Amino acid sequence: MSQLSRNSDIRIAGYAALFDRVDRGGDIIRHGAFRHALGRQKNWPLLWQHRQDQQIGQIVYAAEDRRGLRIIARLAGGDNVAAKARQMLAQRAVTGLSFGYRVRSFAEVLQASLARRELLALDLVEVSMVTHPMQPGAQIHMMTANTQTEFPQSPILKAPM
Question: SS3 for 66?
Fold first, then answer.
């Protein structure tokens, strides 16, 4: 864990949500669902396993691209929860991302499929590092402990689909 020490500046990048895929809860997020939230707010907490009392960092960049909601976050140093998150990230034991939200607009899916709702507009509340994301492809794809390294702001992050 030397590279991801308690005091180093750790940044992660990945997708907190993927568009047009049925999640484990039966919802499909549509492109544009975060437009309102991204236009209103610019900083969200990065939580550990959706625990409001366990903030492990801050979202420093969030945007929709063709694939989904792409985020870049800075992990906090210091407390035991953040240290545990860093250790599990270094071991690649936890690489999932998820997000907390409120539904602004949705459509019920009337066709026979695995989906039950199309989420059209969402208020983003938080992003979390999680063990089991609702969307299995919502993962951390990049991390760095080097404060001089900048993540690309390009709309597509090279990552497995």
Answer: coil
> Which residues make Cβ contacts (< 8 Å) with residue 4, sequence separation at least 6?
10, 86, 87, 89, 90, 143, 145
Helix (H) or strand (E) holding 28: strand 27-29
The torsion of the CA quartet 99, 15, 80, 102, rounded to 10 degrees, works out to -10
Name every residue whose Cβ is closer than 8 Å to that of residue 15 and which is 6 or more positions away in sequence: 67, 68, 69, 70, 71, 97, 137, 138, 139, 141, 157, 159
Name the burial class of residue 6, with classes exposed (0-12), middle (13-18) and buried (19+) by CB atoms within 10 angstroms of its CB.
middle
pLDDT in tens, the chain (161 residues): 444 555 567 899 999 999 999 999 889 999 999 999 999 877 899 999 999 999 999 999 999 999 999 999 999 877 789 889 988 998 889 999 999 999 999 998 776 666 689 999 999 999 999 999 999 999 999 998 754 444 444 433 333 33
Q: Report the distance separating Cα 70 and Cα 132, nearest Å.
A: 18
125, HSE (Cβ side, Cα atoms, 13 Å): 10
Q: What's the rounded Cα separation, in Å, for the pair 47 and 53?
A: 8
Distance from C-alpha of 15 to C-alpha of 4, rounded to nearest angstrom: 21
pTM of the model: 0.83
